[in-house]
Amino acid sequence: GENVEQHPSTLSVQEGDSAVIKCTYSDSASNYFPWYKQELGKRPQLIIDIRSNVGEKKDQRIAVTLNKTAKHFSLHITETQPEDSAVYFCAARLPSETDKLIFGTGTRLQVFP
Amino acid sequence: NAGVTQTPKFQVLKTGQSMTLQCAQDMNHNSMYWYRQDPGMGLRLIYYSASEGTTDKGEVPNGYNVSRLNKREFSLRLESAAPSQTSVYFCASSAGGTYGYTFGSGTRLTVV
Questions:
Q1: Disulfide check for B36: which of A108, B48, B81, B87 has CB 3.0–4.6 Å away?
Q2: pLDDT tens-digit profile of B35-50?
C-alpha cells in the first residue's frame, strides 16, 4: 500500500521568512495530494491540493509543487505570519474504491514575531 | 450547509462503560471515515466506509465498532472503554477521486 513520509517534524521560522515542508510517497499510481492545516484544538482543514497532472499550484502565500519522477511534493509558505503557526499534514491518495487518504506524520510550524 | 457534524463534543467515561459517537454529513458524500488523534500525534484511521452498507477496518480498529446507518450517518461505538482510548476522535467524509476530506469538529474523549 501507499506510505507517506513527512519532514521536518518541527520547523521554526522568523516572521516574514519562508517555510518549506516536504513529503515523499511510495506508490507512483497516487494521483491526489492535499495539505491540511490544524490549529491547536481545531479540526484539520484543507488549505491546498494538487492533482497528479499538475506540477505546481499557488494560492496567495502558499504553493504546492509535485515531482512525480522523484515521488515527492512540497508545501511552500512565503512571508510567514504568526497565524501560520499550526501543524501541517500532507496526504496522498491512490485511486481505488476506498478513496482513503494516507497521511504524513505532521509538521509543527512555529512562526516567531 | 453544516458539512460534517459530530456529537458529542466532549465526553468523560469510566473504564468499562460504552458509548456511541455520532457523525452526520450533508454533502452527499459516499465515503466516511473515523480517525483518532492522540496528543501531539498524527491521524490514525480506525474504520472507514466507502459507501452505504459497507465498512472496513483501518489501522487501529481494536476496541471499536462502526455502523453506516445510511448515506449521511456513520457512528463509532466503544463497547467497553479503556484509558488507552482517551483521544480526540474526528469523523470525515469525502466525495472521493481528487477531492479531499471534510473533517468534523471532533469529539474529545477521556476514559478514567
A1: B87
A2: 999 988 899 999 999 9
